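Tutorial handout. Part one gives the primary structure; part two gives the three-dimensional structure as tokens.
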Amino acid sequence: MGRAKRLGGGTGGSGLAIEFVRTRKVVRLLGWTPDVVIDPLEIPLDVLCRELGIAPRDVGAPVRFLVFAGSHHRPLGGLRDLVGTFDDEASAWAAFRDRRQSQESGEGWAELATIDLSGHVEQLAWFGLHPTSNPATPAPVSGLPRRADTRPLRGHEHPAYLRAVTPS
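Part two.
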């Protein structure tokens, strides 16, 4: 195991140090004076960031924004539906809104998502018919059996139409 990374300073026998203990994911605060023994304080990294209002994108690799889109008549799936990647949120929302305004929900769909440093993808917005539905056939009512020729592509049971979610 490596040593904890330390940043600190002081004068005349007193000081302050901050250590990052990577193996335990904690930040350790150390202080010392000639007269008083100060016990170290350890704060879990996720708690420290949350309490200080630090988002993961502020300290790590920037979050990328992804826009996926496709046609209900010609499904592709996965990365073949990726139509754009964006560094900034405003451009990503603009591209998503352009897709939304350029086609009817019965004709196609679009999804705005983020991908973080660890590869976790989070959906921000969606419009169009749900992938399990056929534009010519209404979606099954929850609780009733589905037709044998339909299968969930995303593993969810939702109504056929999902409205767009846009920031205010």
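Part three, for discussion. Residues 5-54 form one domain. Strands lie at 5-11, 14-21, 26-32, 41-44, 64-71, 82-86, 108-115, 121-129, 161-162.
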